[in-house]
Amino acid sequence: MILARLDLNLVVALRALLEERNVTRAGQRVGLSQPAMSAALARLRRHFDDDLLARVGGHYELTALGQVLLNRTSTAYDVLERLFTSQAEFDPAKETREFKLITSDYAVAVFGAELARVVHEEAPGIRLRFTQTPPTVVDDTATLLSTADGLLMPHGIISDFPATDLYDDRWVFLVSDDHPSVEDRLTREDLSRLPWVTYQRTYDAPAVRRLGMLGIEPRVEVSVDSFQLLPLLVAGTRRIALVQARLARLLAPLAAVRVVEPPYETIPLREALWWHPVHTHDAAHIWLRETSARVGRRLGTGLKGTASRKPAE
Predict the structure, then answer these.
(1) Residues in the chain where the model's pLDDT stays below 50
(2) Which site in 31, 141, 202, 261 is 20 to 30 Å from 158, CA atoms measured?
(3) 293-308 pLDDT, tens per residue?
(4) What is the DSSP string of the chain?
(5) What are the angstrom distances between the C-alpha of 220 and each of 145, 206, 267?
(6) What is the reported pLDDT for 32?
(7) pTM here?
(8) CB 245 within 8 A of CB 170
(9) Residue-wise over 234-260: b if at least 16 C-beta within 10 A, else e?
C-alpha cells in the first residue's frame, strides 16, 4: 500500500542526494534542475520525517537515518534496475548489457576466464564484471544475490536458492619444490606439524570442518584472501597450503611449488552458479545460465590426479 502511493523516481533522487551530499550535484547527476531536486529532497524529508542531509558549516552531512539509508538505497536501486531491464527475448549477438558475477579469484581463474572468452566470441556487446565475494555472503545471501546476476560458489555453503551446476573440483596441497621434509606425499602428522598458508574466509568452511573432524588443527602462519597468492607464499618455505586442484594445475608452473595429494579423503567440490529467483524467467539471465553451464561442461565433471613427484636431483 505504501509503494502504491510512492513515486519510484524518488529512489533515484534519494541515492544521488545521499551519495553526493549536495543538492546541485545530485540534480546534475540525474538530470534535474536545482529547484526540482530541492523539491524531491523536501518530499523525501516528509516521507521519512527526517532531514536526511543536515547542514554543518558550509556543507551537508548525512543524518543517522541518512547513513542507514545510504547502503539500502544503493541495493534498492540495483534491484529496481535489474527488475525493469528484464526481457522477454534476448539476442546475445545484438544486445548490449553488463552481467555482474560475485566470485572468488579461484573461480575467475578456473571458470571465469573461459566464460569471458566464450562471451567475447558469441556476444560482443556483453560485458562481464567479476566482484569479490564478501565475508557476509552466508549472513545475508538474499540481499547479496538481489544486487547481482549470480554468485559462483561450491555447494555446501549456501542453500535455498536456485543454482546451475558448473564443474567438479577437489582439494590438494601445495608445497615448495625444495621442501626439506616432504617427499612425494604428506602425512597427517605433517599437517599438524608444518606451518600453513590459508585462504581465510568465513564461507570457506567445509574443508576446514573436514580437518577438524580428523583432529587436525592447522598451524596458520599466513592468511590471505586470494587463492592465487597461495603458491607465492608457499614457494621457498616450509609452509603448506590447501588449494583446489584445477587452480593448482594452473598456478604450479608459475612458482617453485609442487602438488601433493592429501593424506585423507577430501570433500569433493561442485562449483555452481547461484541466482536470486527474480532472475529465473528473464531471457537474458537464462542465456547467461545456459552459457555458463555449457562452459562448465567443457571443463568436465571429472578431474584426473594432479599430484607430481619431486623432480629427481
Answers:
(1) 1, 202-203, 302, 305-313
(2) 261
(3) 999 999 875 455 444 4
(4) -TGGGS-THHHHHHHHHHHH--HHHHHHHHT--HHHHHHHHHHHHHHHTS-SEEEETTEEEE-HHHHHHHHHHHHHHHHHHHHHT--S---TTT--EEEEEEE-HHHIIIIIHHHHHHHHHH-TTEEEEEEEPPGGGGTSHHHHHHTSSEEEEETTS--SS-EEEEEEE-EEEEEETT-SS--S---HHHHHHSEEEEE--TT--HHHHHHHHTT---EEEEEES-GGGHHHHHTTSS-EEEEEHHHHHHHGGGTTEEEE--SSPPPPEEEEEE--GGGTT-HHHHHHHHHHHHHHHHH-S-------PPPP-
(5) 32, 17, 21
(6) 86
(7) 0.72
(8) yes
(9) bbebebbbbbbbbbbbbbbeebebbbb
CA atoms lying within 13 Å on the CB side of residue 107: 24
Euclidean distance between CA atoms 235 and 239, whole angstroms: 8
